[in-house]
């Protein structure tokens, strides 16, 4: 049982069972993802897409989308196609990130990477297939949501993925590799785009589907931006402090690839402090939502305490 700060009275603690909440949500998402992509002809590509999509992972992005939709008065049913699409997009970005032309990784989520099993050609296509299907899935499967909101969601997803989001962050990351003088501004640019943009889209899409008022959308977006950067700082810390078994991927990769990271610029202790500060700033954005925000608050706290 995790005891979280009550958003309305910071001194009081309101119990919230985050492990149980995450477990319930994870099984709901696993089942929805499994149903989303059945095997068809040509079997090889569907198998490759399913291999990485169903390989586990924390499912943080779809959980954030569902939790925000419910916080804003919507239902799980309204958000589940978008939640699945977000996990498809995240998974495709991992498949492409692991390719020899990018980070060249052999392990992900405790398994061999997609290209190690299916070859580079199919891994590229599996990523492309997941990306295209994510958009089709939102457009075709979202029910009981006004079309205007679905269009807004599709637009937010496109922005998060493209040159103004993940792709842009990845380009600057690749350009910065091996450079000794990467500034904190450049590092923030990389991770605001590579990592925080998709987490922001998860929260924003959940709020949009529920029809949240603009002021709430803005607050929730700031919450997501803060946890997004905190998430990446912790990711950099774990690359140094956690084992391959804990991470499910090669540990110590950043140092090996001569990548600038938050700990390489600030040191471990200051990185931890900055992550905690961002989580506190994120939680402050939830003040006006009261107890409805307990899941988002507990997820923010989980970001700095996670071990993988
Ligand atoms: C999106 C079109 C398109 C291309 C991709 C390769 C690329 C461009 C971007 C890289 C994006 C990337 C891999 C960012 C890292 C984000 C990150 C911290 C991943 C780890 O997320 P977790 O810990 O992983 O949530 P699990 O396995 O738990 O889901």
From TrEMBL:
GO terms, molecular function: dimethylallyltranstransferase activity; metal ion binding
Coiled coil residues, start to end: none
Keyword Cell division set for record: no
Cofactor(s) recorded in Swiss-Prot or TrEMBL: Mg(2+)
One Gene Ontology term from the biological process aspect of the record: terpenoid biosynthetic process
Catalytic activity: isopentenyl diphosphate + dimethylallyl diphosphate = (2E)-geranyl diphosphate + diphosphate
Keyword Methyltransferase (UniProt): no
Matches recorded under Gene3D superfamilies: Farnesyl Diphosphate Synthase
E.C. number: 2.5.1.1
A GO CC annotation given for this chain: cytoplasm
Annotated pathway: Isoprenoid biosynthesis; geranyl diphosphate biosynthesis; geranyl diphosphate from dimethylallyl diphosphate and isopentenyl diphosphate: step 1/1
Keywords: Isoprene biosynthesis, Magnesium, Metal-binding, Transferase
Family: Belongs to the FPP/GGPP synthase family.
UniProt name for this protein: dimethylallyltranstransferase
């Amino acid at each position: 049982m995790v005891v979280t700060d009550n958003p309305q009275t910071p001194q009081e603690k309101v119990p919230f069972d985050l492990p149980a909440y995450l477990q319930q949500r994870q099984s709901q998402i696993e089942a929805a993802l499994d149903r989303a992509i059945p095997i068809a002809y040509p079997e090889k590509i569907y198998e490759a897409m399913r291999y990485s999509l169903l390989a586990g992972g924390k499912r943080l992005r779809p959980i954030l989308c569902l939790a925000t939709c419910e916080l804003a008065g919507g239902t799980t049913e309204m958000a589940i196609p978008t939640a699945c699409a977000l996990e498809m997009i995240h998974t495709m970005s991992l498949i492409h990130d692991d390719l020899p032309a990018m980070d060249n990784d052999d392990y992900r989520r405790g398994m061999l990477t997609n290209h190690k099993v299916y070859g580079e050609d199919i891994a590229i296509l599996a990523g492309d297939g997941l990306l295209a299907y994510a958009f089709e899935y939102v457009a075709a499967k979202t029910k009981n949501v006004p079309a205007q909101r679905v269009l807004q969601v599709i637009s937010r997803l496109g922005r998060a993925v493209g040159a103004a989001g993940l792709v842009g962050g990845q380009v600057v990351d690749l350009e910065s590799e091996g450079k000794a003088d990467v500034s904190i501004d450049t590092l923030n640019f990389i991770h605001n785009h590579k990592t925080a943009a998709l987490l922001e889209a998860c929260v924003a899409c959940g709020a949009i589907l529920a029809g949240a008022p603009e002021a709430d959308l803005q607050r929730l977006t700031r919450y997501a931006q803060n946890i997004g950067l905190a998430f990446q700082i912790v990711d950099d810390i774990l690359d140094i402090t956690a084992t391959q078994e804990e991470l499910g991927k090669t540990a110590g990769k950043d140092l090996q690839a001569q990548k600038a990271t938050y700990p390489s610029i600030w040191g471990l202790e200051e990185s931890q402090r900055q992550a905690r500060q961002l989580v506190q700033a994120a939680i402050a954005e939830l003040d006006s939502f009261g107890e409805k925000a307990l899941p988002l608050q507990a997820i923010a706290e989980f970001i700095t305490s996670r071990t993988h």
